[in-house]
Amino acid sequence: MSMKHVVMAGAVMLAASAVALAGPAGGTVSGKVTYEGTPAKMKPIDMSKEPSCAKMYTTPPVVESVVAGGGNSLENVVVYISAGAPDDAAPSSAAVFTQKGCRYIPHVLAFQVNQEIKIINDDQTSHNIHPLPKLNREWNKSQPPGTPPISEKYDKAEFIPVKCNVHPWMHGNFAVMKNSHYALTGDGGAFSLANLPPGKYTVTAWHESYGDQSQDVTITGSETKTVNFVFKAKPY
Amino acid sequence: MGKFLAVTIIVIAIASAIPVVMHTWEPPADISTHGHLIDSQRDDTMIEAGVSFLAAQILLAIFIWQFAGSKGGGKRKTFPGGAKGLVGAALVLVGAEVLALGAFGTKAWATVYFTPPKADAMPIQVQAGQFAFYFRYPGPDGKFGPIHPEMINEGNQNLFGLDPEHDVESRDDVVTAEMAIPVNKEVHLLMHAKDVSHSFYVPALRIHQDFVPGLDLSLHFTATQVGKYEIVCSQLCGLGHYNMRAYLEVMSQADFDDWQKKQAAAQ
């Protein structure tokens, strides 16, 4: 064998071992969520009845039921595998939901069935968080300032609106997921669901005001499939 | 022991009368046109009740002092006419006092509840709901659009359940979390409760109105002084009742017009 052959064989062996050591093969579904049409005007929130929160803002915050990003992108969309993937055990880390400035941060919290959620009150006023599920158990809990976080979990997959009993303008959402393949879009509307074994999947995109849409996609190896969603904006 | 009780009664009676007579805890200055009638009714009540209270307590203390320590048994003094006379006299005295107060107060009551608002009074709708007050101004068309309770969505700030897409009169309605009014202009409040009973109370305005769900309540008043006042809910309405309030701003007409323009732009 010549030197060239040795080098080539070595390179092939290196490449093969790199592929073998790369971990489980997984395809990716990625894309962008956008809207067409004109979204309704997001009204400003007057928090004057709660001065300790109102004073935290120089300009009043606006309603977050539709958050539009650059390039007609839609934020706060939960994109997830709704069919084709087995259920996953919940991770041990907690998902955190914070009450600050009399708002819920993040506006949409996505987490898994039986995963712990930690609800923190970072304000100087009491809150009374009241999620409104249809399938899971309904509860509301009072949380004075300076008290420890509330720990809860949900055992059924569901999209749950969340309100505060004391402050009518506070509104958020819990997205309880069956498996670990989910993403929340940010500014730009992009999402990426990785590590999908070969199979036929249904990808669903959910938005709190515009409903949900699904598309089917098939993964055969470790390719990246592009799936885009376009929602119809409502002017009112 | 009995004499000590008599002295204690006198001391308590006089001690509790002193802050009232000295006007130690006065309600805030009256900024309304009708408030003076309510204030004189209050003064009349305090005087009548105060004199009766002091007289009763002093008489009680005197009798306790006189008869303390005596041996038990036997009659002492009897009220002329006996027990029947005593009860009759009490009925007549107290009844006369209550009737008198009622008669004196009719003008205050009628001014608030039986007099209709002026034709050019400014209408403002007030909605009390757990746990905030929200207000609606009719806008340039002067009309309030219909309320669709099933469309109320607090997360979206559709607090009155308006449907501007289909109801033309709703399009210029201005919904606010603060109530602003021009000074020296009669305001006509149209009030209702969204859920349970609440109460709208502005001490300085001498306005205090309970909201009963299902009732549409009407109240009118004129504010005479510029300033910022607190509107508090004074009817226990749930776990957030302590936090239920809004602010009332009485402004000059010019400031009020600016405020209304700003609020309309934010709708």
Keywords:
heterodimer; A: 236 residues; mainly beta; Immunoglobulin-like; 2 domains; five-stranded mixed sheet; four-stranded mixed sheet; 2 helices; 42% strand; B: 267 residues; alpha+beta; 4 helices; 10 strands; elongated
How would you characterize the overall build of this protein?
The complex is a heterodimer of chains A (236) and B (267). Chain A has 236 residues and is mainly beta. Chain A has 2 domains: 27-85 and 182-236, Immunoglobulin-like, CATH 2.60.40; 88-180, Immunoglobulin-like. Helix content of chain A is 10%, strand content 42%. Chain A has 2 helices and 19 strands. Chain A has helices spanning 3-21, 51-54; strands spanning 27-36, 68-69, 73-74, 78-83, 95-100, 103-105, 108-112, 117-121, 127-131, 141-143, 150-152, 158-164, 171-177, 182-184, 190-196, 199-207, 211-219, 224-226, 229-232. In chain A, β12 and β13 (171-177) form a beta hairpin. The N and C termini of chain A lie far apart (76 Å). The model of chain A has no long low-confidence stretch (mean pLDDT 92). Chain B is an alpha+beta fold and 267 residues long. Chain B has 2 domains: 2-68 and 80-113, no CATH class; 122-265, Immunoglobulin-like (Sandwich). In chain B, 37% of the residues lie in helices and 22% in strands. Chain B contains 4 helices and 10 strands, in the order αααββββββββββα. Chain B has helices spanning 2-21, 35-67, 82-113, 253-265; strands spanning 122-129, 132-137, 174-176, 179-182, 186-193, 198-202, 207-211, 217-222, 227-233, 245-251. In chain B, β1 (122-129) and β2 (132-137) form a beta hairpin. The model of chain B has no long low-confidence stretch (mean pLDDT 93). Classes of the chains: A mainly beta (236), B alpha+beta (267). Chains A and B meet through loops of A and β10 of B.
